[in-house]
Every structure is written in structure tokens, then in C-alpha cells.
Amino acid sequence: MPHIALGGEDRTDEQRDLRMELRRLLTRLWSDDHARELADGDRTTGAKLAAVLEHDIALGALLVPEELGGHGGGCVEAAVAAEELGAASAPSRLLGDAMSAHLLATSGDAELHRRLRRVVEDGVPAAVVWPAQDATWDLHQIHPVEITGAGASGRFRYVAEALDAALLLVPARRGAEFGLLLLDLSREGSGVELHPAKGADVLRPLGGLTVAGPTGEWVGLAEPQRVFTETVALGAIVLAAEMIGAARSCIERMATYAGQREQFGRTIGSFQALRHQIVDALVAWEAARAMTYRAAAGFAAMTRGTARIDDVEPMARMAKAAASDALGEASETCIHVYGAIGFTWENPVHLAFKRWAASAQIFGSPTEQRVRVCQHAIINAGGRAGGALRVAG
């Protein structure tokens, strides 16, 4: 299958090397057959790939600072990895590992830094418990776990990558103070219930979490809202890059198939109407990819102290909205290009369509993201105008 010529988003040799190494590895260890087996419920299918990602590439340590035992990579590197994994429909723990690493590293708490070092050294899979359906990215709006004298209590219906985690980082509240509840699932008893939740994406199972009783370890945070908003914004960018990869694969597949499939004595790719649909998907993908890597670069600048989360959050939201739309268009068009076979379980295109159906909703739908960005722009404009701006009701 021919590959789309990628633009200049890889700014460093390290980023180019990471992309090429992941592409070689996924070509060797992962295929459409593996993805179908995983979708059929064989959770052992990806064991070899997971071992290589963890031990040979140490993907879980990609965003961990070097002084804490990691690679010292940033959001752009995470986007590169997510795009290649998304293009291959390959399972990974990149979303959970990236969010966990950022939350622990930027918490400002020495004990959490030591915990992150142990997570890297022991290869502990971690996940940030944030409701998948939330679009606010606001700690005060999600009903965090309540900590009282009797213990902890709270419930989250849908959490991405929680089922395979050994350490859960749960937003919590103790009185007027917001912070973090650490749940080590290898130690916790009956106070923690984790169960599968139904979701469209068969390659990324969702989990529900119920916490009740004296369990977990409470850690207060100096700037909880900032830390959690940054963490969810990072997750949105990783999801966007993953969807960009899946959309790229759909475009490559339909372009290849349109050049092979014949109808009325000519390849279907020669029909102008079909070519227009493929090009429309390509144009949407190119725009969304540029927005995703711009958001990733902005996030990386924020971690270096040269940008603010107030600037990066709208970029992350717009990137995720654009990537969601691009994958939706590419996967639907790809199914139509394939015709009847595109609707079968044997054809892998349905995996990309289901990834879109799920990922587009995680941390907010495209419409919700754009509404939030508009609200952000109106508030900022009102502030610059001395509060004189009025919004028609």
C-alpha cells in the first residue's frame, strides 16, 4: 500500500527516528489480522507488540522527564507515536501513560515525582481517571471523589484505559481542597470496583470505577485546576493524533483500492465523483493534521514555560474537533469506496469507523469543543474591551 507523503511536522532527528522505528516495528509485528483477532476478543493478540513497545522502545516513559528516569520527550513526540499507532490500528497504553506522566511530573509534589520514577522503573501501567464524556476539562464540574473521615466515595461511568492499569490517578476533593487519590490496584481491597463498560471502539475498552470506603492515598495539589486541565488537554492532543493516523490509513486504503477495483471496464478511481470524495477527505486530513501538530508544539512550548494553558487549551480543542471530523469523513468515505465488502467484519475499515465513533466523544464532541473555544474567545474579547462586550441572547 502506498503511503501519503508526510509534511515537515517532524522537526528533529529524534522525532523522525521515532516515527520510522515505530513504522518498521508495526509493519513487522502488527497486521489487519491481528487487529481483527483483538476485535474478536482475543486480548492476548497484542502481547508481543505490547512487550516490544514497553521494553524495547519504552513508550511508557516517552513523556517522563530525564531526571525522573524517562526519555524527556514532549507532546510532539507523543503525537508522532500516536499517529503511527493509529494508522496501524494498534493497541497501546500511550494515552494513559502520557497523561499520567504529565500529571505526576507537573504536580509540584516531591512524593509524586518519586512515584513517577517507580512507575517508570517497574513498568507500572497507569491511567488518569477522568470521565470520558466530559467536555469542560474543569475539575469543579466533574464530581471528583469525595474524601471524608469515613473514607472515599465516588463513581465514574466511562474511563479510557482504566481496565489495564495498575495505578489509577483519581481527581479528588477533601473539604475545600482539591487533589489526587492514588489507587494502587495491586494493594487496594474491596473499596475499589473496576468493571468493563460498553464502548464503540473495540480496540480501546472503557472501564467504570466505583470507590467506596477507606481506600487509596490522598495527595493535595498546589494548582489542581491547572494540572488537570493541562493533563486532559494533552490527552485530547494524543487522541487527535491517533485519529489523524487512522484517517491517513483510510485515505491510503481507498486510494489503493480505487486504483485496483474495476467497474464498467475501468478502475473506479477514474470516476470523477469518487475522486472528489477521496480528495475532500485528504484535504480535511491535511488541515486537521496541521492543527494537531500545531497544538502539540504549543503544548511543548507550555511545558518549557514559553506559553500558557489559556493559549494551548483552545488549540487542543480545535485540533481534536478537526481530527474527529477528518476521521469521520475518511472512514465513512472509505467504507463507501470499498462498496459491499466495506461493510463486512472481515474488512478492517470498520475498526477506524468505530474508533471515530468513540474517540470523537472522549473529552468532548467536536461541537462541544468548538462551543468551548467560542466561549473562550468571547470571554477574552470581553476582558480586552473592559467588560463592555455583550453577547446577543
TrEMBL record:
UniProt GO MF annotations: acyl-CoA dehydrogenase activity; flavin adenine dinucleotide binding
Name of one Pfam family that matches: Acyl-CoA_dh_N
Record keywords: FAD, Flavoprotein, Oxidoreductase
Domain named Acyl-CoA dehydrogenase/oxidase C-terminal: residues: 226-368
Cofactor needs: FAD
SUPFAM superfamilies, per database record: Acyl-CoA dehydrogenase C-terminal domain-like, Acyl-CoA dehydrogenase NM domain-like
Keyword Oxidoreductase assigned: yes
Stretches assigned to the Acyl-CoA dehydrogenase/oxidase N-terminal domain: 12-115
InterPro entries registered for this protein in UniProt: AcylCo_DH-like_C (IPR036250), AcylCo_DH/oxidase_C (IPR009075), AcylCoA_DH/ox_N (IPR013786), AcylCoA_DH/ox_N_sf (IPR037069), AcylCoA_DH/oxidase_NM_dom_sf (IPR009100)
UniProt-recorded name of the protein: Acyl-CoA dehydrogenase
Organism in which the protein naturally occurs: Pseudonocardia thermophila
